[in-house]
Amino acid sequence: xxxxxxxxxxxxxxxxxxxxxxxxxxxxxxxxxxxxxxxxxxxxxxxxxxxxxxxxxxxxxxxxx
Length: 65
Ligand code: SF4
Known about the structure:
Layout: H1 11-16, H2 20-25, H3 27-32, H4 35-38, H5 42-50
Bound molecules: iron/sulfur cluster.
Iron/sulfur cluster is lined by residues 4, 6-7, 10, 12-13, 31-32, 38, 41, 43-44, 60.
């Protein structure tokens, strides 16, 4: 299955993929490893809207860690 194309540059993925809460919520599997669902990622939408990435601790649901 295709993954999110932003994986390599996403601060959340790079810095928080091992975070206990992130693992517990399953966000990486749910969003980052599923290209279709990643289109719903709040981080990706933020990037499109603002032209720059959100803070690294913003999760794919938009909630801050
Ligand atoms: S958090 Fe969002 S933008 Fe970042 S890699 Fe995952 S799906 Fe892509």
